[in-house]
């Protein structure tokens, strides 16, 4: 794909890994999934094998095959395909980084190792550096998700001087609600051309104000179009419409968060909205309950995220 690369911006869908009812990867729907993102959601970047993709629940061999499938199906359709290559084993992570470069991915991302953990910035940087070095031609993104990794080193601290250690460092995927930390990452690195990608979909508008250059998230799989409308309103400085769009998105996410929302539920919602059967999650996750699916469906319909023929007007709360 060659450099210099275009900066990663706009929405990035954290892809689901489609599975069969028996828990095997269902490669057959990936082509259809790419077309759906581009044509129906207006999303042209993807983040593969991350949290939503159950990357850490796949074998290294499966992760390689999944990455290959997305790169192949995305060719000439997607702008960028970033592969998450984080793992507990440095060796696995390096193997996946090198593989991502070989297959022509556009970037790699890495979370902090989360069982035997790095306890300070230097330890974490050292791990990341060793992974990045296995793919010296690929843009490198640090994936900050402290609530899941338990590694609470502030992103601002990590970014200080990071390019001296990791020359391919290109940006941050920030999945946390600490907007002080996020804002300071932006503020202290203004002279760099880093991508600052926010990862809490229900709070994206606040992060845009703080300088986010894009967003990576699970909900862009099925609410990409709506979120793009928010980004466009923000671009044209129409903040009251941008806020209306954010509130609309929040109504849905708030509703499902109260029911219990995670990767299993994301898979069920995606199947419902897109019609693409992405299947159940792999253990230890368990598939979403029938009750969750029915409730989420009714909410999607009332918000007009899903076409509805059986709802009375009185039950509609469509977003402007
Ligand atoms: C923990 C997690 O999966 N976070 C996702 C990405 O970082 C988000 O896209 C959330 O799923 C979304 O913001 C809903 O809370
Ligand atoms: C949301 C996200 O970025 C992930 O699933 O990894």
TrEMBL record:
Catalytic site positions: 143, 173
One Gene Ontology cellular component annotation held by this UniProt entry: cytoplasm
EC number: 4.1.3.3
Molecular-function annotations in GO: N-acetylneuraminate lyase activity
Keyword Lyase found: yes
The organism's place on the tree of life at top rank: Eukaryota
Catalytic activity entry: aceneuramate = aldehydo-N-acetyl-D-mannosamine + pyruvate
Pathway: Amino-sugar metabolism; N-acetylneuraminate degradation
One GO term (biological process): carbohydrate metabolic process
Protein name: N-acetylneuraminate lyase
Origin species: Callorhinus ursinus (Northern fur seal)
């Amino acid at each position: 794909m060659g450099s210099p690369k275009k900066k990663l911006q706009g929405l990035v869908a954290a892809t689901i890994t489609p599975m069969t009812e028996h828990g095997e990867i269902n490669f057959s729907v990936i082509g259809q999934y790419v077309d759906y993102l581009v044509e129906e959601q207006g999303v042209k970047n993807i983040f593969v094998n991350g949290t939503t993709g159950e990357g850490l629940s796949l074998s290294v061999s499966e992760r390689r095959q999944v990455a290959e499938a997305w790169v192949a199906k995305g060719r000439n359709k997607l702008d960028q395909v970033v592969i998450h290559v984080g793992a507990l084993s440095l060796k696995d992570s390096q193997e996946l980084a090198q593989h991502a470069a070989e297959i022509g991915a556009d970037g790699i991302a890495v979370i902090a190792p989360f069982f035997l953990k790095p306890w300070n910035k230097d330890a974490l940087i050292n791990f990341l550096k060793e992974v990045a070095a296995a793919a010296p031609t690929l843009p490198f993104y640090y994936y900050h998700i402290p609530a899941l990794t338990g590694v609470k080193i502030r992103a601002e601290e990590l970014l200080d001087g990071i390019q001296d250690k990791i020359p391919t460092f290109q940006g941050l995927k920030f999945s946390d609600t600490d907007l002080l930390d996020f804002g300071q990452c932006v503020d202290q690195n203004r002279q760099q051309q880093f991508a600052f990608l926010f990862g809490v979909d229900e709070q994206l508008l606040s992060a845009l104000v703080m300088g986010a250059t894009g967003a990576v998230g699970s909900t862009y799989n099925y609410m990409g179009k709506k979120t793009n409308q928010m980004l466009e309103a923000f671009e044209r400085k129409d903040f009251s419409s941008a806020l209306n769009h954010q509130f609309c998105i929040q109504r849905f996410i708030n509703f499902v968060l109260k029911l219990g929302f995670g990767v299993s539920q994301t898979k069920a919602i995606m199947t419902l909205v897109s019609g693409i059967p992405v299947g159940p999650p792999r253990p230890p996750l368990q598939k979403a309950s029938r009750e969750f699916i029915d409730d989420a469906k009714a909410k999607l319909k009332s918000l007009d995220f899903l076409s509805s023929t059986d709802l009375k007007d009185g039950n509609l709360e469509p977003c402007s």
